[in-house]
Amino acid sequence: MDSRSSTAPLIVPNCGTCPSYPANQAVRALGLITGNVEAEKAAVSALEDKKPNVRMAAASALGSMQAKHANVELERALQDSEPAVVLAAANSLFLLHDDVGYDIYYDVFDRRKAREQGTGQRRTQHIQTGKTSAEPVKP
Fold this sequence. Notes:
Helix 4 (52-64) runs parallel beside helix 6. By secondary structure, the protein is an all-alpha fold. It has helices at 7-11, 23-30, 37-46, 52-64, 71-77, 83-95, 99-117, 125-129. The N and C termini lie far apart (53 Å). The protein has a domain at 7-97: Alpha Horseshoe (Leucine-rich Repeat Variant), CATH 1.25.10.10. Helices cover 58% and strands 0% of the residues. The chain is built from 8 helices and no strands.
């Protein structure tokens, strides 16, 4: 089946309106539809949902559908208060070959390594300010 078929119009308007099909599952299903502008718009819109599981599904779907035009929205999702949403957005950015996704994974690994070594030095400036620096941020 062509991903540009009429599948998206069936899913998109009904995301989360059916009690037996929660919004997060409907949004996650959008990730199966590649090359469809309407599906991409619906997933981007779901990044603003009040439920974190829907925002996480949206971030994940955008990576799965290779939504290369959603980088700005995914980078904005890195500021989400829910860690699962941040990691889903980072993973999608990584899948889209955006260096910011890689930077987030590196920061998580670096934090874990610093905690294990007890150094306390962390490369967190990118997450906090969106900018990188050669010097670590002081706690």
